[in-house]
Amino acid sequence: MLDNVGKRYKYLLPVIPVLVFFLIFFIYPLVEMVRISFCRSLPYGQMERIFTLENYVRFLTDIFYLKVLWRSFLLGIAVTCVTIPLGFVLAYALWTSKGLKRKFLYFCVLFPLFTNLVIRLYGWRIILSPTGPVNVTLQKLGLIASPLKLIFTFPAVVLGLFSECAPYYVLILFSVLTLINERYIDAAIDLGASRIRVFFEIIWPLSLSGVISGAVLTFIWSFGAYATPMILGKPIHWTAAIHAERQILSIRDWPFGTSIGIILLVFVVLVLFIQGRITKKTQTQRS
Amino acid sequence: MTEITKERINWNAVMFNIAVVIVLILLLAPIVIVILSSFSGKTHLSWPFTDLTFRWYIEVLKRSLWVKAFVNSLIIASLATVISLAIATPAAFALSRRRKNKISGALGSFISWPLMVPPVMIGIGLLMFLSVIGLRGSYFAIAIGHTLWAAPLVFITMNAVFERFNPIYISAAGDLGANAFQTFLKVTIPIVRSGMISAVFLGFVISTQEFIIALFLYAPKTITLPVEIYTAIKYEISPGISAISVYMIGIVAAGLIVIDRVIGIENIGFGGKG
């Protein structure tokens, strides 16, 4: 009996190294963080190892931190809303193109993806600065008298996060689009359906799974973003992730910092859970 | 009647192409502007860039701080790539061979979990844990952090490769007397070569560009280039930073061109037909 079980799961042996690695360096630190988040913080980075909910209570009753959480949420929603249509356009262009044009578009997606995020954020800082190309050009054209305030604004943060997440979104969506049987589209066109109808009745429903997983990834990354709001935003745009880091590295309040992190994580898990539910639903509807 | 429809389709196509161009501009503009600004002769970056010069490219190489950070990034990326491949490839192989069941499905999604956790959390967790075991600030510490990010991507890439792989070759090798290890080395690896190359590239580049985890774990001795740039641009934007960035961008571009020559650029990605 035991031998039988052993045989059945023997094929899973090669999975062990990655599991062990993740358990040690990923799961264990997270568990440790959960533990610390229930400790009491003392001055000078010390903490008392007792079980208390006070860090969570402090976060969830302080209007300042609730606003931070709400703004992180809004940021995630805003970036996702921008990325879904714009990313779809590029994925669709990639899917319908051939030969050299496809190569070119593919390069345009991969190049930003593989270029340092810091370098791209630095590029945005130059573009959006008061003496940057956008402001200077608009001024020369006489459209504006004095430089617009572009950098350190909410739209700047959204723009930065869009250019961070879009390449991943496009690749995920593209890989789903390539699985669509093109005969469906030919058949629909032969039967007289317009391009727009083909899009909404065939392509969109069949690519929905890719849109959802890409959008969820975009939301999670923007919601938990650290670098982009830090470089392109002001303290008012700081996300919960930045506040968690501040608490730990600057203020050295480990229990409170980790509790912010855990709350962030709970949100992420919640979003993934909802995504799982939606995917299940669409799958059962189709079958 | 038909003409009207035709015209409307063209109109749609024009709108669509405009949208594509806008998206491409949004993606590429920051990179293009960094490249342009690196030639600026003025120390303060204001548009338009004038007095074009190459001198920043040479000047930046004289600053050992930047060169050291650059070398550190390459060392850490190599470590992270090797670890990611070593742990993720066997897993991808094992989980792609059998028909999907609950266990293999759960394991597969578990391996992609680190991608869902905000990197700040991974950084904080590792900082705590690695300080306790005395690894903090070492090359390995940062490489471990980057592996948590690179291994899932390597896993996803390799899983797609193995899924397209016809298992009949494996049984044929077995029938001819090869053991599992020989089969893996002599049959499986050559067939999945192009997938492996793209996985290596993915792992390496992901590591060279990650900096949030590195920000938590670095010591002055092991500072990586993205962290160095990040700390610098908080205070200033200057053509020197642009020049060192262009070196990084150049490596990525060269890598992509080489990859295109060897396996075709379309083979990098997350599965699909590729």
Structure commentary:
By secondary structure, chain A is mainly α. Chain A has a domain at 56-113 and 152-286: MetI-like fold. In chain A, 77% of the residues lie in helices and 1% in strands. Chain A has helices spanning 2-9, 16-37, 54-61, 63-96, 99-114, 117-128, 133-140, 154-177, 182-190, 195-223, 227-232, 240-250, 254-286, and strands at residues 40-41, 47-48. Chain A has a two-stranded antiparallel ribbon with strand order 1-2. In chain A, strand 1 and strand 2 form a beta hairpin. In chain A, helix 2 packs across helix 13 (254-286) and helix 4 packs across helix 8 (154-177). Chain A starts with a helix and ends with a helix. Chain B has a single domain (38-267), classed as MetI-like (MetI-like fold, Orthogonal Bundle), CATH 1.10.3720. The longest helix of chain B is centred in the first third of the chain and has 36 residues, at 2-37. Chain B is 74% helix and 0% strand.
What distinguishing features does this structure have?
heterodimer; A: about 290 residues; mainly alpha; MetI-like fold; two-stranded antiparallel ribbon; 13 helices; 2 strands; B: about 270 residues; 12 helices; about 75% helix; about 0% strand
